[in-house]
Amino acid sequence: MLSSSTSTLRLHQPTRPHRRHPPAPAAGGTTHLGPSRRWRGPPPAAPPLRARPQRIRAVDAAQPFDYESRAAGLLEERQHLKIAIVGFGNFGQFLARTFARQGHTLLAHSRTDHSALAATLGASFFTDPHDLCECHPDVVLLATSILSAETVLRSLPVHRLRRNTLFVDVLSVKEFPKNLLLSSLPPDFDVICTHPMFGPESARDGWDGLPFVFDKVRVGDCPARRARAEAFLNIFEREGCQMVEMSCAEHDAHAAETQFLTHTVGRMLAMLELRSTPINTKGYETLLRLVDNTCSDSFDLYNGLFMYNKNSTELLNRLEWAMDSVKKKLFDGLHDVLRKQLFEGSAQVPSTSNVRK
Fold first, then answer.
1. Burial of 178 (0-12, 13-18, 19+ CB in 10 A)
2. Among 287, 312, 291, 268, CA closest to 172
3. Whole-angstrom Cα distance, residue 91 to residue 241?
4. Structure confidence by residue, pLDDT tens digits, 274-315
């Protein structure tokens, strides 16, 4: 910003040839201008120069049909986003409720017709992905199951989207969707991989304090694109989430323990058909809640956690080893007790002198 001392802006005048002033008057006040002309008295003042309109030419002016530049400028000025949720199932609807409450414009697409439920949230539902993409959303949110993510993504006509659209996934594994998005989308598309570490059951009382993992895989070096990425992440920050920026590889290493192990134990306990009893302990009630929280999700989710996280196989082998180790310790202890009862207890070898002949 210019200070008050430099507030005057001067435009340089184009160079003009110097005008020759009349010669100074001779003694007596007469000046000779030529053989037939004489100038009497002091020379007249030069006529004022009329200001000529200045024309400023911009070298790098934006072209009138540069729609992307205009859209980027508008996007930078506004906080609300147009979000297309692809995969409008249980988890997609769960996120959509918060998006709608914050005032974002919602579009939805799914194989199942959820148009009635979308209408209650003020969202527009599209059965045809072409119609969805032609609405030019700012963000396309991939909220499908892990197993169907590749098929759904390849079915989207991404050529109908703006060429720098932001794609975000909320899958429970991260390296797989990262590689999928980078290999399937045009290079100008932005990509953020995220994982809300909560769901409809665990976040029924709100998102405050719950971890939200994200990795800005590819965001263009442009103010509008950076602002759009921050505006999306701000949705979760406003709800009080614990924002955790982490690489996709690091996420999967941790998630094998924090998520796959939890789901595995929950489903093992479900096979036991545990029931509440009149003498429940706090620990037992925790196990019952674990069964409810894990088994309320589809088996496809659990299967995806195993198939698309390379760390899950090793963890499953470790879990099996741990169970065998505990069993061995129990049975070894039982074997020691039986040995003591058999060979060091009351059992004695009978005396032959007491045997009747």
1. buried
2. 312
3. 17
4. 999 999 999 999 999 999 988 988 899 899 999 999 999 999
Report how far residue 167's alpha carbon sits from residue 149's, in angstroms, rounded to the nearest whole number: 13
In this prediction, residue 302 carries a pLDDT of 93
Bridge partners for 195 per DSSP? 213
- What is the rounded distance in angstroms from the CA atom of residue 217 to the CA atom of residue 166? 11
CB 206 within 8 A of CB 199: no
Q: Count Cβ neighbours within 10 Å for each residue of 223-237 and write b for 16 or more, e otherwise.
A: ebbebbbebbbebbe
Count of CA atoms in the C-beta half-sphere (13 A) of 268: 10
Q: For the whole model, what pTM was predicted?
A: 0.69
How far is the C-alpha of 162 from the C-alpha of 182, rounded, in Å? Answer: 17
30 beta partners: 40
φ and ψ of 138, to 5 deg: -75, -35
Read off φ and ψ for residue 171, nearest 5 degrees.
Answer: -70, 160
Q: Kindly report the CA angle at 265 between 207 and 146, in degrees rounded to 5?
A: 60
Q: What is the number of residues in the chain?
A: 357
Segment 179-204, tens digit of pLDDT: 999 999 999 999 999 999 998 888 98
DSSP string of 259-282, one letter each residue: IIHHHHHHHHHHHTT----TT--H
In angstroms, rounded to a whole number, what is the distance separating the alpha carbons of residues 307 and 173? 10
d(CA 217, CA 162): 19
First to last CA, the chain: 125
Q: Which of 241, 197, 234, 193 is nearest to 214 (CA)?
A: 193
Residue 27's CB is within 10 A of a number of other CB atoms, namely 5
